[in-house]
Hints:
Blueprint: H1 15-19, E1 23-28, E2 31-36, E3 39-43, E4 49-54, H2 61-70
Antiparallel strand pairs: 1-2, 3-4
Amino acid sequence: xxxxxxxxxxxxxxxICEKFSVWQEKKFTGKTSMGIVRSTxxxxxxxxxxxxxxxxxxxxxxxxxxxxxxx
Length: 71
């Protein structure tokens, strides 16, 4: 049986958010603030981005990411 690994990242100091340009100005109910734009990235063994989704919505996203991982 083959084992697959999925690594998740916690970015406490915000360095990765800045590098991936996901820390952006957001507007909600007429108010502007800084926040993380929900995004998903698939990286290869060399840490190069293979696929990215920015500004994603939750519904259906997991299935889309799993399908991309299978391909």
